[in-house]
User: What shape does this take?
Amino acid sequence: MAASPDKSPTLIAPGVAFTPELQMANMLGLCEAQMESALQESDKAVDALVKAFTCLVDATRSVSSLTEGLPNQVKETIAHDLDQQVAAITKQMGAAVMAFQFYDKLTQRLGHVRYSLSTLALFVCDRDQANRPDQWTRLLNTLRRLYRTEEERQIFQAIMEGIANEVANTPAPVADAKAGEVELF
Assistant: This one.
């Protein structure tokens, strides 16, 4: 069913009580699911690359073995060219190994983000926890231990310091305002 231009379809299930926490948890769950889907797709692509890489390694070994069995006068003629080709392939295999290492690091970091999102989604749905600063501290300490790389720890620390600075610089509410009065700026 298409939505009319002036009326969007409702995405809140009938009979389900609306709460901002539930909506936030649903959105965090959506983010986590999208990340999981992207990781699964990229894993398939990396598997194909690993197979191709394995074939390349096998082919390089085969070429090296073939050159050892050649007569000396043939070896002298093509040895230099073969050595250059094998060196080029070896260099590319080294670059591929580095790319695989980068991918591995990336997937680990995305896994940490997925865990953080799902943990936060569960956390915000529990109003008792979400309203207690000590529980937020506990959650943040749990997430802090999750980060393994120096980059992850630096980003976490920078964000936490930024939040702490924002809270410290937020003006306190005016205590002498009368109940029910609205102050205009």
In short: The radius of gyration is 29 Å. The chain is about 75% helix and 0% strand. The chain has one domain: 20-166. Residues 172-185 have pLDDT under 50 and may be disordered.
